[in-house]
Each structure stands twice: as C-alpha cells, then as structure tokens.
Amino acid sequence: MARSWFTQDEISRVEAQVAGLERRSRGEVVPQVVFASDAYWEVHGFAGMAAAVTAFAGVEFARTYSPWAVPGLEALTIVVLAAILGGVLCFWSPIKRVLTPERLRTRRVREKALLSFLLMGLQETRDRTGVLIYLSLFEQQVEIIADRGIYSQVPAGHWDDIARSLTEAIRSGRPGEGLEQAVIRVGERLIERFPVAEGDRNEVPDRVVFGHPLLPQWGV
C-alpha cells in the first residue's frame, strides 16, 4: 500500500540519489516508507464505545421525551449497530487520524523507526554512519535516525529541519519529491563530513524499503 504513493520514476530517482551519495561518502542511508506505524485498534474501540453511548443516549431521550418509545430489543440492536459502525468508520484514514492523539502517533512512529534501524543493522556499519529516513504516511510523520558516528559530527537540529520539510511534502501530496530532496540534503552533509575513504564498501543495499517486517500493513 505504501508503494502506491510513489511512481516508479520517483522510486528510481530516490535510489539513484542514495547510490550517488554513498559513492562519495562513508554514509549508509536507507529510506523506508510504511503506510502506518500501528493499527491503533484502541482508537477503533474508543470510536465504537462513543457511538454506542451516543446511540444509547438517543434511545433514552426518545423513551423519555418522545411518543415514539423504542422497544428494548430494538434499542439494544441500535446501540450494538452504532458501536460496530463507529469502529468500522475508523478504517477511513482521515477519521482515524483525527481521533488518534498526536502524542500517541508520534510515540508509535518513533518506536517503529528505532526498531527498523536495529533490524536493518544500521548500527553495525564499520564507521557507525548508518542513517534511516523513516516515513509513516498515515501519521504524516518522519523520523531521521543517525548512528553515533554521525551524531558526533552533525547537530541534531540539522536532521529536524530535513524531517520538517519532508513532513510538509507528505501533507501536500508530494512524498516522492520530498523524499528525494531529503536524501539529497542528508547526502550533502555526509559527503562534507564523511568523505569516502580507501577500503570503503557498500554495506547496505541502495534501495527504498517499503513496509515494516513486524507490521502487517492494514488499510489503516
């Protein structure tokens, strides 16, 4: 699902930028794109409960103030259907995004980005120069994680600025263009601070990774 947000030409351009910067620096950069960093089932549950409570309140109001009293079994049916409908509506991303607290979204994105960094072995490069550019489309959030070899030379604020620009590109419907520019900007700093050295080798494939090994990509 995440791949459908990008054209093949955009993917090819991003991968060409990754290959080019790695020929000129000791950095190892991996762009990763997931549709969502979590299914947020608790949000489905909250929406279903809220819909059920609202329906129950409506039924009770009708019983108290209206001549059209709802029989008990029908009232129960209305409440149950409302709960189901509330949960199902959260499969539509705009509704789920509104109902999911930003703090929760940010925490889940950061957790999955850190997990990806470790699972891909980016902490095991020879010079500790691995960089993960992690895009989570549903949350419209970006995490850029650099290993300690890079953090000792590049201030954290530099990555924050790149992440903000990429986030804006996602929100404006330009994830391919935004990712390409992010790779270029990351590469500029890596080429400046970590130029290629004798004996350097490519330790990570030069490709865009779609999906997460521990995340079934539901239509969330």
Write the layout of secondary structure elements.
Blueprint: H1 8-24, E1 28-34, H2 41-65, H3 72-89, H4 93-99, H5 102-119, E2 130-136, E3 141-146, H6 148-151, H7 156-171, H8 175-193, E4 209-210
Parallel strand pairs: 1-2, 1-4
Antiparallel strand pairs: 2-3
Helix pairs in contact: 1-8, 2-3, 7-8
H and E string = HEHHHHEEHHHE
Helix content class: 55-70%
Specify the overall morphology.
elongated
The mean pLDDT is 89
Question: Could you list the spans in which at least 5 consecutive residues all have pLDDT below 50?
Answer: none
The CATH architecture assignment of the largest domain turns out to be Roll
Tell me the number of structural domains. 2
Query: Looking across the biggest beta sheet, what order are the strands in?
Result: 3-2-1-4
Largest sheet: 4 strands, mixed
Look up the CATH topology of the largest domain: Diaminopimelate Epimerase, Chain A, domain 1
**Span of the ends, CA to CA:** 10 Å
CATH secondary-structure class of the largest domain:
Alpha Beta
